[in-house]
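User: I'll paste a sequence; please echo it back and then give the predicted structure.

Assistant: Echoing your sequence first, then the prediction.
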Amino acid sequence: MNGLALSREYFFDAAEPELKRAFPKLYPRLAAGLVGNGSECFGYDDEISRDHDWGIDFFIWTLDDDRAMIPALQEWKDNLFNAHPPKFTRSRSEYGARVGVMSCGDFYYSLIGAPEAPTSLREWIRAPEENFAMAVNGEVFIDGPGRFLKTRELILGGYPEDLRLKRLAAKCMALAQTGQYNHGRVALRKDWVTLRSVLSRFNDSAIAMTFLLNRAHRPYYKWAHRAVSDLRILGKETARLLLMIAELGGLDTESQAARQRYISELCTLFVCELKAQNLTDSDDWFLSTHGEEIQSRIKEDFLRNLPTQYEI
């Protein structure tokens, strides 16, 4: 029982015919769908998700020139839901996102701080990566003018290459320091609190690395591991090895040695893929070497001159 599928069905069965009748001239200039905040927009909702901010709903997006029609469209939508109550009415908590009527530009601005796809480095780094993921998830049911989908496709293309390289370089450094180097050292010191921090940082960096290798945007951390398994490049391998590492929660010598093997296996896969994408030529096993080489290939002076381990 997926909220996105239910919302799609409701839109085409109950909403779209009425929308065409109520706004025959405006309809070709509208877009509609369910995108943004919420597990159902990623297709990850389940019975646990249904206790708040879940149910059948959809956005209507207007062109900027049609902003004056937003109140009338919102009133129409409210009346529609009263006249044709959805099987599962969407609940909204105090902090839940509103699903309603807004312009295309306002929708994107609410997530990424710009009404269209970023055109500058500053715009790309201003918004959290998870917000870009929310801007392109879900499904667009209709888009007559194509304005909404145009921005969506540009964001789906991923970060500009220089920014992707900078982030890949930083993730190489983080993976080398946490997994290849410090995991074993803090275990020898029996520093269990730091060991948990090391594993958490390695986990986060490995997932981020996999999304960057796929030129995809990583979602909110709660869904990142689930989402990584869907990626074409190393997605299933990353998800599998991180699960195996997580299940080895023991602090005994045997568990630590097994974790180190899985860490090494995953790092080796990353090195192979970096070389396959022609981002590094080194045969070194240590990912920091590859991070330095990737950093050197950045064309933009500002990014190339930042410390390699600096996260941007």
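Residues 29 and 98 are 22 Å apart (CA to CA). The mean pLDDT is 94.
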